[in-house]
Amino acid sequence: MPKSAKKKPASRARSLPSTNTKTNSMTIQDFSSKSLVAEEAPHSKPVDVTFTFIGGIGQATAVLFRKGVLINMQSISNTGSVSFSEVQTSDVISVNGVCTGKAEVTVSEPTTPVSPKTFKAGLMMANFLIK
User: Fold this and answer.
1) CA-CA-CA-CA torsion for 103, 109, 112, 113, nearest 10 degrees?
2) How far apart, in whole angstroms, are the C-alpha atoms of residue 108 and residue 130?
3) Is the dihedral of CA 74, 85, 53, 117 positive or negative?
4) Within a domain: residue 103?
5) What pLDDT is stored for residue 69 in this prediction?
6) Is 46 within a domain?
């Protein structure tokens, strides 16, 4: 067969999208400034997170989350408290830090797990769900 008479490749049949496809529906959560910010919410309350460093020094950060969104973050480098002014039920306060002695973290409102929580020297990590 001469070089100019090459065979054409067989055409491939294209697959068409099936009309029997199952549709999935998603419920999209409504996020607005009022759904995340606690201002104007009558059930909001102030919450204090107290860090007590015993027999050493420490540094810690407390973070307030609402529906998975960071609302407020505050750090402290000695014994004392940080305050969140507008906290709602089901918000989460995440605590992390480090201490050279013992540390005790107390949340002023009822939480799950119950506070205070005591940490040994080293890393501090805990989450508290506001009841």
Assistant:
1) 20
2) 10
3) negative
4) yes
5) 95
6) yes
∠ CA(39), CA(41), CA(47), 5° rounding? 75
- The pLDDT tens digits for 56-78 are 999 999 999 999 999 999 999 99
Computed over every residue of the chain, the mean pLDDT equals 85
- With respect to residue 14, please indicate whether it lies within any of the assigned structural domains: no
| CATH code for the domain of 113 | 2.60.60
23 or 102, higher pLDDT? 102
DSSP annotation string for 54-97: ESS-EEEEEEEEETTEEEEEEEESSSEEEEEEEE-TT-EEEEEE
Number of domains in the chain: 1
Q: Is 122 within the bounds of a domain? A: yes
What's the pLDDT score for residue 45?
Answer: 94
β-bridge mates for residue 62, sequence order:
74, 95
Query: Which H helix or E strand runs over 34?
Result: helix 33-36
